[in-house]
Amino acid sequence: MSKDKQMSDKYEIGMKTRRRVLGDSYVDAAEERRTSFDDPFQELIVEGAWGQVWSRPHLSPRERSIVTIALLAALGHDEEVAMHVRACANTGATREDIREALLHVAIYAGVPAANQAIKIAKRTFDELETDGEAGNA
To answer: What is the extent of the structural domain holding 112?
Structure first.
């Protein structure tokens, strides 16, 4: 966030939620890459996605992970699928949860989308195991 702006409540809540879900190291690295060009976009993401949606009480972080992975897979957002599979270690979503979500993707969004997301999830699981960060996922 630009230094001359005061953080909104939604931004502060969003940043806490983002860190809880994605982890400090991921968020710190993303913040280091932040520039004046993408600053407004980053503020939008933190306030909107993390402060408005992910911080709502009606779904658990686990449930939000499942929904998010299914949507990202259906839309073919491969890098985001991998990021959110990694985040499951922090949200409580399990490999079985991810598998079930991707089966839904196959039926409702198409087998190719699910097939690609399954490949990404498997690769991400392998990376997590290699790094010793397997957690729930």
So the answer is: 61-131
